[in-house]
Amino acid sequence: MTEQVTEARDPKSSPITKSSGNASGDKIFAGLSYGAGALILVVLAFVAIFLVTESLPALAPTLFSDQDSISSADNFWVYVVPLIGGTIMASFIAILIATPVAIGIALYISHYAPRRISTPVGYVIDLLAAIPSVVYGAWGMLTLSTALVPVYGWLHDVLGFIPFFSGDPSTTGRTLLTSGVVLAVMILPIITALCREIFLQTPKLHEEAALALGATQWEMIRMTVFPFARAGIISSVMLGLGRALGETMAVTLVLSGGVFTLSLISSGNQTIPSEIALNFPEAFGMRQSELVAAGLMLFIITLAVNMVARAIVNRNKEFSGAN
Q: What is the reported pTM?
């Protein structure tokens, strides 16, 4: 009797056969998945081809007999480098402010707050991500910029020896630092929501084992939650960075434009998306090629950031503990 039961439970003695209907469904689903993946690559290739083709008059004006140089500067790089600098600086400020705050909020929701508080706070975070960017931009232009004017004066008086706080402080508050704060508020819900879901997926056995060994709540989070969520945190931060790099309307409403400067509290600076939004409707000829070429630079920067983020995630995606 024992031998019969063992033989019945042996997978080799009773192989599981797939029905033809399930096999055909798997093939159809696999084909659709491959097609969707290929479609993404095709669209990305067409976008790259369009940007390169339309940018050639600005990137290589000597190849076109009717255009000797770009109209905005001596050459394209003199024109685009300040825009790249402003874009990177504003995005870096946003990430620097939003990342620790978002991780702290996500930890509070997932591990500290009681359910009656964590649930509504989670809903509020999700709703903040749905607010249009133009609303954030209007808030930054009308309210935040005015409120930060005294702060900029104080930063200039106390930290004026640092290049980032040198120069005449803006009297309107419409500076790169204000733009970075607005971007930080915009990407905060995205990073928070993703980190919250990742923290909640930490294996409970790991957390309970750490607490059973005498770890405090913070030590448990540091030893189990953070190692498990490392790759997810990096992914969420990179997603927020991508949003900050490409944001247009909020930055356009806040920044006043002008000559590029390292000072974060002085009026001036511009970003690539804002430059394109302000000038593309009336642009034609070489001016249009300049703006498309600037968009190509933003495309390359975003692609490089995502490739670096993917490499970091792949290197840290496996949990370092007993998984």
A: 0.82
